[in-house]
Amino acid sequence: MTGFKIMKGRYGSLRFPVVLALILLALAGFPCIQVLAAGPGWVKQENGWYYYLEDKSPARGWVESGGKSYYILEGGRMFTGGLTPDGYYVDSDGAWYQRKEGILGNEFTAPSRALLIHEPWPGTEAFTSLKTVISQGFSGRRTIKVSDNALEYVVPETAENQNKTYGSYDVINRENVDAVLSGRFPVTSSESSAQSAKKQKAAVLLGLYRETAQGRFRIDIHIPLDGDITSKYQASSYDYGVFLALAYQVSSTPELLAASLYSAWEEDNRWGISRQKWVQVGDCLVLYTSGDGYGRFYITPVRSGN
User: Fold this and answer.
1) pLDDT given at position 228
2) Mean pLDDT over all residues of the chain?
3) Residue 153: pLDDT band by 50, 70, 90 thresholds?
4) Is 212 exposed, middle or buried (0-12, 13-18, 19+ CB in 10 A)?
5) Dihedral angle sign, alpha carbons of residues 199, 148, 289, 235
6) Nearest 10 degrees: CA dihedral of 220, 215, 258, 254?
7) Contact 187, 164 (CB under 8 A)
8) Torsion over CA: 116, 122, 128, 132 (sign)
9) What is the CA radius of gyration of the chain?
């Protein structure tokens, strides 16, 4: 017989390709056997991507590739879809990159990791510019307040209505926001400090707060959101833009945080945000509680022990 080398022995006469197939099948049962790289860079293996150095040894830790950063586990395999041991969130493709986005004409840059409670807001300067955009867009009827512990999107008080309250309405909520902003609510005069405080509470549309004692942040939503920063309705476009900018202050994955809060507030809550337990969203944990016509979301960075 020509074309095949015959091997004889314990198993009788076997064609060489059959023997080779048996050997390869046996090797498949040993996943610890490492595939050697032909050169430096990425190698696709059955259980993921591996990264090798110039000397063909597996990398370990962070590597730069294609303008993004990837975390390499011991043995050379790329880590995907979660929080790395040193606290950075990578997506399902394994990539970490600092998120940046133009929001209503201002560039917002997310923190490199979830913001810690004692760290300053990363977008204070951008929010100052955004305040001008908002004030001009609404002819002064809305503005942004910036402080060390709060970022608020508000209907500002004026000297004309400082001593007026919006009837029996304590807060601007999903049902009454249009009426409040258009001035259709009946108003009553009062000099009491309690009613003045009620008016001030009613002015907040969106707010991000630092709750230092509890070690967490809080986002309050008092208005409906339509999820589209390019909406043909200018007011709703501004509203969602401010909401997205708030997410950029506390998370390195603001697009995930904004999407999860929006889904819980307006849609089917596909992220499963709950009152009973903290739910991880990117590099943050989120907990929901409801107010009188508004939503309140607590946010804390993911870390060991959460």
Assistant:
1) 78
2) 80
3) very high
4) exposed
5) positive
6) 140
7) yes
8) negative
9) 28
